Amino acid sequence: MIAEVAGVLASSKSAIAFTGAGISAESGVPTFRGRDGLWKRYRPEELATPEAFRTNPKLVWEFYKWRIKKILEAKPNPAHYSLVELEKMGILKAVITQNVDDLHREAGTKNLLELHGNIFRVRCTSCNYKEYLKESGRIEEVLQEDIPRCPKCGAYLRPDVVWFGEPLPEEVLSKAFKLAETADVVIVVGTSGVVYPAAYIPYIVKENNGTVIEINVQESGITPIADFFLRGKAGVILPKLVDEVRRIIE
Ligand code: OAD
Ligand code: ZN
């Protein structure tokens, strides 16, 4: 089946990828709904909310500092690099990710849409202050604070990520939907496909007569509309797929 899927990709004109936590699993980043998704006794749904931050900002920051540390130890894996390869070959037009771990950018993806924000960005809960910690060089400083504060106004900073019950960044979402409307192929990698509106992306591609290729270790909310389901680890399947595509186009 990989050869057939490679053929579809090789002849595509406007392919996009839609990724979730599963693409970073082999990098050691815990997924949300997997066995390793719990921090202490909490599910992410209990801590990644505005309510949790209002009642216990210290606990929520503790959770995010733990995630930031985990992610700092992680490196992109062959799945991330395969998507970079496909972009360089001119096949992949964009990567739309639900991940906040920055690993697509670290790997070298150029056209990246982050639907749920980025864990290395912080923003003020009061003024319009924003900071990308990888650029400002303040990661360590922030990790040492109980509740990091805004350098401009002194209010609490929060991770610039989307929490449960919050809207997605409007501009990013509308760009993603537009890409999905015109995509002839979407490669869906490592997502349970149950969190909306992000999970609409493959459905929009399908509605517009695009082909849905899914890579996952198990079936997901997207599998019912997948034209091709490649079962296995993203870091194993994607490099094989890229090899096949290269064979076809070279
Ligand atoms: P989930 O944890 O819900 O799903 C991870 C998916 O990856 C599952 O379908 C796994 O089967 C699959 N998977 C695990 N290891 C894999 C591997 N090595 N190769 C391929 N697939 C693998 O994560 P998401 O679908 O990303 O939202 O979750 C969606 C959103 O819910 C997240 O962005 C986050 C979360 O709560 C917000 O924070 C707003
Ligand atoms: Zn401020």
Structure explained in plain terms:
This protein has 250 residues and is α/β, with parallel strands linked by helices. The chain has 2 domains: 1-29 and 76-116 and 168-250, TPP-binding domain (Rossmann fold); 30-73 and 119-161, SIR2/SIRT2 'Small Domain', CATH 3.30.1600.10. 41% of the residues lie in helices and 18% in strands. The protein has helices at 2-10, 22-25, 44-47, 50-55, 57-73, 78-88, 103-107, 133-136, 139-144, 170-182, 200-207, 234-249, and strands at residues 15-19, 92-97, 112-114, 117-124, 130-132, 157-161, 185-189, 211-216, 228-231. The strands form 2 sheets. The chain has a 6-stranded parallel beta sheet, sandwiched between helices. Strand 7 (185-189), helix 11 and strand 8 (211-216) form a beta-alpha-beta unit. Zinc ion binds next to loops.
Low-confidence regions? none
Helix share, percent: 40-55%
Give the spatial strand order of the biggest sheet. 3-2-1-7-8-9
Number of helix segments? 12
Provide the CATH top-level class of the largest domain: Alpha Beta
Bound molecules: 2'-O-acetyl adenosine-5-diphosphoribose, zinc ion
Structural class: alpha/beta
What are the main properties of this structure?
6-stranded parallel beta sheet; 3-stranded antiparallel beta sheet; 41% helix; alpha/beta; 2 domains; Rossmann fold; 12 helices; SIR2/SIRT2 'Small Domain'; 250 residues
